[in-house]
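Posting here for the record, re: manganese (II) ion.
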Amino acid sequence: MIFEATMKSVTVGEFIVETQNTFPGSSGELSKILSAIKLASKIVSHHINKAGLAKEILGSSGAENIQGEDQQKLDVFANDTFINALSARGVICGVASEENDSYIAFDDKVNNEAKYVVLIDPLDGSSNIDVNVSVGTIFSVFRRKTAKGEPVQLVDFLQKGDEQVAAGYLIYGSSTMLVYTTGNGVNGFTFDPGIGVFFLSHPNMKIPTNGAIYSVNEGNLSSFKQPVKDYISYCQSSEDNGTKKPYSSRYIGSLVADFHRNLIKGGIYMYPSTESSPNGKLRLTYECSPLAFIIEQAGGRAISENGRIMDIIPNDLHQRVPFFIGSKNMVDQLEQLMESAT
Ligand code: AHG
Ligand code: MN
Ligand code: MN
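Prediction output follows.
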């Protein structure tokens, strides 16, 4: 059931109430999970938008995360903000984050009774903050597998993408938007900072089946596998992509920003395996799986080098996988090149 709404007349809170019955077995937990995410995103958005002025929140924190990446101060701020908001609602028993080596159990009487876990990339594209380029947050929601009443376990977080009950992202760009799915289509909400509310602005989002945009860091081209090289050179030499436009290369360097543009305009984002990153760079549990859920709900596809992203059972919280996601016919074409190379 798609809640027919005109622009700016439906807030995300009202939309959730209208569509609550589409969230499996929920008695209001979805709205509590999303209200925690909404609150944290407003705080993070506010800090990002003044980052250029508030020097104390710009730049590196001086620490490294488990990925071996230089943690930006806003990575740490966003992480703390989302984890505090998620632990305060009594509907989540634990969180796993890009910025924490292991998962965090909300081990108290109330939260141990909660049904859901959340995995999060609190700030995606954070290397772009200091140069005022759009960044984002990505989140994924699963039902716990272990019995309620006990502290959450690692197994609750290592579930394949098909088991997700909700997934979404925030993009902190020219406007702040929340885009999410609970398995009944994809809807986008734009934040009105004047009144502090997200309004339904992009109901029932669908990615065009064909696209003319390919997004990849071509600086790594020499170390891509041959099918990926062949696909990129096809894009660079062909006019035939099912649209009336020639191919364009667009790469922002923030996954959420590249993904969001391609979701609206059509396109493919690729982070293949490279010599330095044989499993690619992007993390399965809190980047690839949630975006794969969204793109499939929007009529697109998401694959790795050997099959569908949402079929992969994670073996580690921070597992990296080669990642190809976007318009169905573009991913199909790349997949055919991969299959004919085996
Ligand atoms: P994060 O900031 O969460 O670590 O994610 C960065 C990711 C993704 O957002 C982006 O598309 C990609 O890194 C860019 O990687 P390269 O700079 O290697 O192209
Ligand atoms: Mn990221
Ligand atoms: Mn990140």
